[in-house]
Amino acid sequence: MLSMLFKNTTQKVLNRQLLTQVQSQVNNLFQSQPIFRETLQLQFQVDIFVHGGKDSISKQVEEVQKYPGIRSIITSASDDLSNPYGDHVSQTLKKVVESHSYDKVIASTSAFGKDVTPRLGGLLDVQPITDVIQVINNGQQFLRPIYAGNALSTVSSSDKIKILTIRATNFEKIAAGSANTYPVKEVAAQNDNVQGKWLENNVSESEMVELGSAKYVVSGGRGMKNGENFKILYELANVLGKQHCAVGASRAAVDAGFVPNDMQIGQTGKVVAPDLYIAVGISGAIQHLAGMKDSKVIVAINKDPEAAIFKVANYGLVDDLFKVIPELSQKIKALQ
Ligand SMILES: Cc1cc2nc3c(=O)[nH]c(=O)nc-3n(C[C@H](O)[C@H](O)[C@H](O)COP(=O)(O)OP(=O)(O)OC[C@H]3O[C@@H](n4cnc5c(N)ncnc54)[C@H](O)[C@@H]3O)c2cc1C
C-alpha cells in the first residue's frame, strides 16, 4: 500500500506501506510507484512508510531504497504487523501522520488501501478522496471517475489533511534504480485501541504474474460456461508467457463460482490497464468496462455480434470461443 503525506504545498511526503515480507507482494506494491513521478513533477518531498514484521522490515526498506525521489523512510516493525490488518495499520498511521504533521496521505486503490484509508479518515475526522486518476492544480484538486467510469469528477476538499487513494494504472511507472541511502526513522507500532485481529490469509496460489501488473490479461466471462473451461484461457496465457500474462474474469463468472473472486475485473473488482486485454465470452457491461477500458489494445471474442464489448474493442472476433481460443493458442505457439 502506498500513502502520501504533505506538510504544505511545497513540501510533500509520500508514505508507502509495504504489506508483507513476501517478495512478490513487495513487488506488487510498486505498481503504485507511478505516484512518484506525479510527486516529483509537483516538487513535493516524499517519505515512505514501511510496515511489517521485524524479520521482514529491512528487506522491504532495501526495496524502497532503490527508488528515486524519496526524502526519508519511516518504518514500523512489530510481529503483530507481519500480517497487516487494516485497523492496526490505520492506528499506527494516525500516529505517524500526527507526529510528523503530514497534510496529505496517499494510498493505492488496492483492496488494502481501500481498507486502511477510510479507517484513517475516521480516526482523523477527514473525508478520504478515493480512486484519484489525476492530481491537478498543484495538488489542490483531484480527478476521479464516477458512475462506473462514465463521468469524471474534479474534487477538492477543505479538510486540513487530504487522504487519497490513487488508481495506479493511471500513473506512469518509474523503474527501480540503484540503491540510495535515504535516512530511515522508526515509529513504534500502535497497538492500543486496535479492534479485531488478523486470523489468516486465503490467497490463491498462481504461478502467473499478478493481475494488476500483467502486461497481457486474458479474461473469461459467463460464456466460459464453467470453471473447468477456464483451462483453455490458462493455456492461452501460458503461450503468451506466464511471466507477462494473467487470467481475469467478469463478475458473472465469479458469481457463478467458475473462478475465485480475486480474479474479478470491473467496478467492484480490480482495475487493470495492460498492453493487451483479451475479453472472452464477456458481454461488456459498463461495470466490467470500468475495470479494463483503459487497456492499450482490447480484443473481444464473442459469438454475439451485438455484444457491447465490441464498441470498446480494437479487434473483435464474432465466433465460438471454444473453437477460437484453442486455435489461437496453437497459432501463437507455432510462431514462437
Ligand atoms: C453494482 C454492480 C457492480 C458490478 N461490478 C461488476 C464488476 O466489477 N465486474 C463485472 O464484470 N461485472 C460487474 N457487474 C455485473 C455486470 O453488470 C454484468 O452482469 C457482468 O459483467 C456480466 O458478465 P459477463 O459479460 O461474463 O456475462 P454476460 O453478460 O452473460 O455475457 C456473456 C457473454 O458470453 C457470450 N458467449 C456465450 N457463449 C459463448 C461462446 N461459446 N463463444 C463466444 N461468446 C459466448 C455471450 O454472447 C455474452 O455476450 C456489476 C453489476 C452491478 C449492478
Automatic annotation (TrEMBL):
Q: Which GO terms describe its molecular function?
A: electron transfer activity; flavin adenine dinucleotide binding
Task: List the SUPFAM superfamilies hit by this protein, alphabetically.
Answer: Adenine nucleotide alpha hydrolases-like, DHS-like NAD/FAD-binding domain
Claim: Signal is one of the keywords in the record: no
Keyword flag Transferase: no
One protein family per Pfam: ETF_alpha
GO BP field:
fatty acid beta-oxidation using acyl-CoA dehydrogenase
Q: Which GO terms describe its cellular component?
A: mitochondrial matrix
Binding positions for FAD? 222, 250-251, 264-268, 281-288, 302
Question: Organism's domain of life?
Answer: Eukaryota
Necessary cofactors: FAD
Record note on cofactor: Binds 1 FAD per dimer.
Location of the protein in the cell: Mitochondrion matrix
Span of domain Electron transfer flavoprotein alpha/beta-subunit N-terminal: 19-202
Chief subcellular location: mitochondrion
Sorted keywords for this record are: Electron transport, FAD, Flavoprotein, Mitochondrion, Transport
PANTHER family xrefs = ELECTRON TRANSFER FLAVOPROTEIN ALPHA, ELECTRON TRANSFER FLAVOPROTEIN SUBUNIT ALPHA, MITOCHONDRIAL
Report the function annotation for this chain. The electron transfer flavoprotein serves as a specific electron acceptor for several dehydrogenases, including five acyl-CoA dehydrogenases, glutaryl-CoA and sarcosine dehydrogenase. It transfers the electrons to the main mitochondrial respiratory chain via ETF-ubiquinone oxidoreductase (ETF dehydrogenase).
Q: Which family does it belong to?
A: Belongs to the ETF alpha-subunit/FixB family.
Oligomer and partners: Heterodimer of an alpha and a beta subunit.
* Protein name (database record): Electron transfer flavoprotein subunit alpha
Q: Which gene encodes it?
A: Contig3781.g4049
